[in-house]
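C-alpha cells incoming
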C-alpha cells in the first residue's frame, strides 16, 4: 500500500471515531405549548376543580337584530374574563375592575344563527372557572316589529335556603333556620369569651350565597326586641367577603370587609342599606358581641367574682338582597352595546 493511501485511510478512521454526527432518521416533534390540544394550562391540576366562581351576568336578551350583544356582569375582582363563541373565533377577553369586579364586553354575533356564548373567569393562581353560558339568536331587524317592554327589575333575597354556619354549636335549633324565609323560626347562638363578668362574645353566624352578588341591602331579624326579651344584639357588626374561600369571619385576615355596625341595637329588625356602595359578596356574616342584658352593672363592680355571663342571640332571619339588574332588550344595534348601557 502506498504511503498516500495509508494516510487517507487513517484520516477516514479518525473522523468516524470522533462521532461525526448524522441527522436523525426521524425529526423531533416541536415542543408542546400551553393552549395546544392535550396540554394542560400551567399551574393547574386537572383532577382539582377550579376554585374561581363563574362570572355573574346581567340579564341578556335571547334574541337580537344587532350585530353584537353586550355581556355585562361581575366576577372576582382582578380576574380576567374571556368569552368563547359568536362571530369572533379567536374569542374575547377583558380584565375585571380591580375593586368592584365589574366588566363589560361587546361580542359580535354570527348572523342568522343561535350564538352560544361561554363566559369564564381566569387568574394565574387558581386557573379557570366553570362557564356561564348564554344563547342569543341573531335575526334581521324588521321596522314594523314592536319591541316588548321589559319588566322592571326586582331585587331578590338571595339568602333564602342558602347554607349557614356558626362559630359554635347552636344552643337551640339548626343554623339553617336563619335563612329559611320564616320570621317565626330562629337559631340561638352565644357564649362567653371571658373569665368572669360580661365580656364581648367573638362569635359569628355566616351565610354562603353560593356565588357572587352585588348587594343592595342586608336585613337582620332578631326574635327578641327591647322590652320583649334580651336575646338580641345591642352590639354587632355585619361583614361580607367576595373571596371564594375567606375562612372564618375575621376583619384581621384581609378577606372580609365591614359594611355595618352598631353599639346600641334594640332588637327586632335592622336594615342595612348598601345602595350607595353596592358591595360584591358571596359570604355575609354577623359578628355578634353583646346581647340585650343590662351590661351597665359591670361598670359599677356588681358582677359576682368568678361568675361569667353568656351573651345569647336568637337570630330569626338574615336577608341578603341583590341589586336589580339592568335589562338588555331587543332593539336597534346601538342599544345592545357596553357604551349604550353605561360601560
Amino acid at each position: 500500500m502506498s504511503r498516500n493511501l495509508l494516510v487517507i485511510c487513517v484520516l477516514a478512521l479518525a473522523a468516524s471515531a470522533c462521532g461525526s454526527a448524522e441527522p436523525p432518521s426521524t425529526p423531533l416533534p416541536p415542543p408542546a405549548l400551553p393552549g395546544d390540544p392535550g396540554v394542560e394550562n400551567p399551574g393547574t391540576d386537572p383532577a382539582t376543580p377550579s376554585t374561581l366562581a363563574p362570572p355573574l351576568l346581567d340579564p341578556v336578551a335571547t334574541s337580537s337584530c344587532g350585530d353584537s350583544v353586550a355581556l355585562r356582569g361581575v366576577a372576582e375582582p382582578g380576574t380576567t374574563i374571556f368569552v368563547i363563541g359568536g362571530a369572533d373565533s379567536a374569542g374575547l377577553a377583558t380584565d375585571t375592575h380591580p375593586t368592584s369586579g365589574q366588566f363589560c364586553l361587546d361580542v359580535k354575533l354570527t348572523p342568522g344563527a343561535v350564538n352560544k356564548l361561554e363566559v369564564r373567569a381566569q387568574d394565574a393562581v387558581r386557573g379557570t372557572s366553570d362557564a356561564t353560558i348564554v344563547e342569543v339568536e341573531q335575526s334581521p331587524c324588521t321596522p314594523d316589529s314592536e319591541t316588548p317592554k321589559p319588566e322592571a327589575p326586582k331585587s331578590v333575597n338571595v339568602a333564602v335556603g342558602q347554607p349557614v354556619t356558626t362559630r359554635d354549636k347552636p344552643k337551640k335549633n339548626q343554623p339553617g333556620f336563619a335563612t329559611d324565609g320564616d320570621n317565626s323560626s330562629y337559631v340561638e347562638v352565644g357564649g362567653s369569651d371571658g373569665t368572669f363578668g360580661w365580656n364581648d362574645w367573638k362569635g359569628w353566624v355566616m351565610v354562603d350565597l353560593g356565588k357572587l352578588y352585588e348587594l343592595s341591602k342586608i336585613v337582620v331579624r332578631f326574635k327578641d326586641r327591647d322590652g320583649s326579651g334580651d336575646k338580641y344584639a345591642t352590639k354587632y357588626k355585619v361583614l361580607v367577603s367576595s373571596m371564594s374561600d375567606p375562612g372564618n369571619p375575621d376583619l384581621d385576615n384581609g378577606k372580609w370587609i365591614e359594611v355595618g355596625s352598631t353599639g346600641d341595637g334594640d332588637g327586632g329588625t335592622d336594615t342595612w342599606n348598601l345602595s350607595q356602595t353596592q358591595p360584591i359578596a358571596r359570604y355575609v356574616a354577623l359578628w355578634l358581641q353583646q346581647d340585650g342584658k343590662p351590661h351597665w352593672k359591670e361598670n359599677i363592680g356588681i358582677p359576682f367574682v368568678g361568675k361569667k355571663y353568656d351573651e345569647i342571640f336568637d337570630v330569626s332571619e338574615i336577608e341578603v338582597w341583590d341589586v336589580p339588574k339592568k335589562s338588555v332588550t331587543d332593539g336597534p344595534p346601538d342599544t345592545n352595546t357596553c357604551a349604550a348601557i353605561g360601560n
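note: Residues 74 and 336 are 18 Å apart (CA to CA).
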